[in-house]
Amino acid sequence: MFTTLNRNTLGMACEFYGVVKNDTYFTHFRHTHPNEMLENWEVYIFIEDDVIKSWGQVQLFDGNKSHIARLGFCVHPAYRKNGHGTAMLNHALLKCKQEKLTASTRLDNLPMLNIFLKAGFIIEGCFVNEEKINGKPISIVSLARFQ
What we know:
With 147 residues, the chain is of the alpha+beta class. The protein has a single domain, classed as Gcn5-related N-acetyltransferase (GNAT) (Aminopeptidase). 24% of the residues lie in helices and 39% in strands. The protein has helices at residues 10-20, 37-40, 84-95, 110-118; strands at residues 2-4, 42-48, 51-60, 68-75, 100-106, 122-133, 136-146. It has a seven-stranded mixed β-sheet, with helices on both faces.
């Protein structure tokens, strides 16, 4: 069942956070805790058997960037490779009405990169050695989709 992050689902979201916060493929949780997302984010979660199996977030912008939204999503490690990532991305795409959707992923995260490309995203650029994870330089791919 798809639902949104709210006070009722925050406990499960914090459990999900605890599982994926150190996931080197989804670095967003290193910067933002689910508590901080209740007000200024659109967050979708897929719950089955009282477990969050996937998480999608949409960051909306104001002013001259109001036509753009930034997407991100993550699948619980125990439920990867079962279509949850594609389902979450499709759900977020249905909900998001901005003209341009942006996303980024590690260059070496081929499953995520392929999900975005199959959904009609194009590569806008690559930031070589943009981040360091465990002392290792990581390149980041920037993607966009125009609605």
